[in-house]
Amino acid sequence: MKMVFRWFGEKHDSIPIQYVSQIPNVSGVAATLMDKQAGDLWTADEIAALKNSITAAGLEMEVIESVNIHDDIKLGVPSREKYIENYKETIKNLGQAGVRVICYNFMPIFDWMRTDLWKKLDDGSETMSYDHTVMESIGEPNEMIRRFEAGSGGFSLPGWEPERLSMVKELFRKYDGITHDDLMDHLRYFLEQIMPVCEEYNVKMAIHPDDPPWDLFGLPRVLKDRDSMQEILTMVDNPYNGITLCTGSLGVSPDNDIPALIREFGARIPFAHVRNFKRTADKTFWETSHFTPDGSLDMYAIVKALHDCAPDCYIRPDHGRMIWGEKGRPGYGLYDRALGVAYINGLWESMDRQG
Ligand code: DNO
């Protein structure tokens, strides 16, 4: 296992890279070029500059989160070909720079979704939450975007690029009539095209589950449960086609037994996002500390399954609360995620020693 920490780059993160290297056992970052739009080519020079800023702090850049997928690829329209070519070239450039895993998602239009980015908890900390009744009352995608922008604290939120979202009405029109099967088929096509490049440059693709794992605003989603996980892994049955096992995305659906999923699909899980949440009602939750008794997931069982069945994966702590007065990007402050690392380290070490 290698522990990594999501970092948005010098210009975009509230956390100096040097602080990341001070967290025990963190070997590298899950990095990105935040200014890139979905579909853009990442040049070797841009990648080298990013890598230099990371290695200067003694950290590795073996994981990228994310190289976003252009909507034309998800829509399966002819113009997808040029974006797939860019993606192939980007994989090649990243592979040559030592990147081993690319985390990406195939969610139409929106990435992850919450209805409150600053829910105040009893202990004074702040966290992100999702309440499906609020979601339904919002009803209108533009209102959702407005809320995300208002709550972002001035940071650009991953997956919520203003440039793309400004075209949201038009995007919705384009997705009209696209079914789950269509979306899955477009994912299959994309993966088939890029697999030879992934093999040649030794870069594993790791699709992120839909967050939350149900359809939103009538848009189809592809990765929400065991069966969709299996479908994705078998339709392109190649070790370079893998999953980012995100405990918090899949886990909020009580039917998804996270340790069981890891035990079944561990060989195809190159990357794990580990976080906890408290489910308070159907499709309603807030994000908690990583500690098992604080949330609804059994972190010991999850880490044990990773330890047993995906021992070589990269792990990162996922969303943390805002604690100790920190100001930062919702979900991505330093302190609570560093506590998450320390906790996972402790679990992992005890498992190593038990053999
Ligand atoms: C949210 C993240 C996602 C994730 C992407 C991967 O906090 O987990 O934005 O990085 O879905 O492409």
From TrEMBL:
Catalyzed reactions per annotation: D-mannonate = 2-dehydro-3-deoxy-D-gluconate + H2O
Signal peptide residues on this chain, from the entry's feature table: none
InterPro entries named in the record: Man_deHydtase, Xyl_isomerase-like_sf
Top-level taxon in the UniProt lineage: Bacteria
Cross-referenced Gene3D superfamilies: Divalent-metal-dependent TIM barrel enzymes
GO terms under biological process: D-glucuronate catabolic process
Any one GO MF annotation of this record: mannonate dehydratase activity
Keyword line: Iron, Lyase, Manganese
E.C. numbers: 4.2.1.8
Any Pfam family the entry gives: UxuA
Names of required cofactors: Fe(2+); Mn(2+)
Coiled-coil region list: none
Pathway the protein acts in: Carbohydrate metabolism; pentose and glucuronate interconversion
UniProt function note: Catalyzes the dehydration of D-mannonate.
Family affiliation: Belongs to the mannonate dehydratase family.
HAMAP family: UxuA
Protein name, UniProt field: Mannonate dehydratase
Lineage: Bacteria, Bacillati, Bacillota, Clostridia, Eubacteriales
Gene name for this UniProt entry: uxuA
